[in-house]
Design goal:
Blueprint: H1 3-41, E1 46-50, H2 53-66, E2 80-82, H3 87-97, H4 102-110, E3 116-120, H5 127-138, E4 142-148, E5 160-164, H6 169-192
Parallel strand pairs: 1-2, 1-3, 3-4, 4-5
Helix pairs in contact: 1-6, 2-6, 3-4, 4-5
Keywords: Carbohydrate metabolism, Cytoplasm, Isomerase, Metal-binding, Zinc
Cofactor: Zn(2+)
Protein name: Phosphoheptose isomerase
Length: about 200
Amino acid sequence: MDLKEIAVKQIQSSIATKQAVLDHLLPEIVKSGQLLAETLQKGNLVLFCGNGGSSCDASHIAAELVVRYKSGNERRALPAISLSADSAVMTAGGNDYGYEEVFARQVEAFGKEGDLLVGISTSGNSKNVISAVEKAKTLGMKTICFLGGDGGKLKGKSDLDLIVPSGETARIQESHILIGHILCSIVESELFQLH
C-alpha cells in the first residue's frame, strides 16, 4: 500500500465514523450539551477525566470552557477542571491510594451535588474513570461518559453515554473531540447566544 492510500483510508474511515455518530448519537449529544449548559448556568463545576489521549481531550474541552470555544466569542470564564492536569495530585494519589483512585479522590475533593463529571474512556474499561463515576454518583453529581466500541464496563453507569460506534481507538478519539466541540458550541449558544 502506498502512502497516499494509507492517508485516504484513514480519512475515509474517519468520515464513516463521524457519519455513524451523526446517524446514531445526535439525540444523546444534544441532551449532553443541554446538561452541560444547565450545570454551568446554575454556577456549578464541571470535572473532566481520562487517560492518555483521553486525558488530553479532557484538558482540551475544559480549556474551551474556561477560556472560550470559538475565537471572537467574548464571554465570562466557565468553571471546568481537568483532573489529570495536576501532576503532584496525580502522582501522590497514585502512590498513596493507587492509580485506580486518582480521579475519584479529586471528585471527592472538588465535586458536590449539582456538579457534573465527564469521564472519557475509549474502551469504557478505565478503572480510574469507573471509580470517579461511582464517587460522583455518591455525591449527587450528574455524569456523562464519552466511550467507544460497545461501551465497556462504563456503559450504563452514567446519566448519559456517548458511545462512538467504532472499535478503532483513533476514530473514537477523533469523534470524542468532535463531540466535545459540539458540547462547547451548545454551551456558548445556550448561555451567551453566541454562534
